[in-house]
Amino acid sequence: MSTTDLIIVLVQAGILVNLMLVAAAYMVLAERKVAAWIQNRIGPNRVGPWGLFQSFADVIKLYLKEDVVPAAADYKFHLLAPIIAIGVSVTVFAVIPFTPPVDIGGTLYTLTMTPNMNIGVLAVLAMTSVGVYGVALAGWSSNNKYSLMGGLRSSAQMISYELSMGLAIVGVVLIAGTLNLVDFITWQSENMWLIFLQPFGFILFLITALAETNRAPFDLPEAEPELVGGYHTEYSGMKFGLLYLAEYANILASSCIMAALYLGGWDAIPFLDDAAILGFPATSIPMVIIGHVAFLSKAFALVFVFIWIRWSLPRFRYDQLMNLGWKILLPLALANVILTGLGVYFFN
Amino acid sequence: MANITSNTEAQRLTFWERIYLPEIAKGLGLTLKQMFKPKFTRQYPEERWIPEGSYRGRPVLVQEDEGERCVACGLCSRVCPALAIEVRAAETEKEKERYPEKFEINMLRCIYCGFCEEVCPEEAIVMSKDYELVFGSQEEGIFGKEKLLVPVAQLQERLEFLRQWR
Question: Which pTM value belongs to this model?
């Protein structure tokens, strides 16, 4: 890789990381707005038009808050936990290609941090596994029984649901025959969106993604009525802000990955050749803009689904959660892999 | 009681109810419908609620052209269950002969029961529509005559309500 390429990638990474964090901050506002609408309320509307500056006000408030660390807490690990959490959720964005390749002076560029990474899906699975460290460490180092319970629950939950998540992804990997997200999307725009071939796998992935990101109905690690605030009970100021932001960044990352794996990524029209219909060359700038908008609208539609589910369904009990994970989702995911494998074997 | 093992709720569910997903979809549909319904929120500082005449807000003294109606009989002070009212009477040249030299209601104690209004023989103390009571210290919470006296014109609705229903 030449120096120019490196600089381009670094600049893109800088832009993307900041955009993702701002988007995550805005998802907090979106969450509050959707919650309000579902409950027949209006939601935040005091800071700026429609409350649009609420997120900035919140972040400034968090920066100005005193950073309280309990006397019994392990200071270093207490500090490390939010850093791991936010680091991991930003790293997941590294593999996501946000635009189709664009032809600039004979070279193909994509808006992503790691152009054409050939182990994209594996990297996603690896990083979500590391994500559990942030939560478990936050719970452990706080030296508080509620935090510890939250951290432990979260570890157990993430490890249980990761299996089903991995197996759900195996289904699409078998069909598309690649681990590269760019190839995934290219395959889908040439053939068809994988949600039509793997509707069942999509539902499995959606459920496990809810559990992986600690979202309702699987938000046991921070179950307010029983655990106060769960693993972030003892956090305040911007450390709490980072944990909170990481949670929303994770949701956005899962939505982007689902959009890329199942909903055709930047492919705007299913089953058909976009470039031919819209009349632009495949790697021209208008196509890239259309593709980018398509990708983001799919991702944010999924974010809305996440929020929508949170405000519709009650929380699972802990034993129900484990039963669902091990006795139901895992066998179903295995069956999905076997059926997909047979399908690929006979129809290819 | 022995554990019930037959005809439990889990057994009464149909197959489609037991696999959850259709029921979850139903629930999601319900919440989605709610999102587009009209909202009930009142934008408080901009849109204020104006109560009916029957509302029991802050008790006030009725002020007429020649001064307050109150004759300082002290009944309100006597009936007040929270001991919030303090009256000190003095003599006056007017026809009614007596007036309250000092009339204080401790709004930290007042429970808005309306007994003072009910017991008043002169209709001199009535409940107003004022529900926005803010003060910065305990001393400010004791309302003297200057805060309590309200022109009779502003209290017409309450007085009519009292005449109709009491």
Answer: 0.81
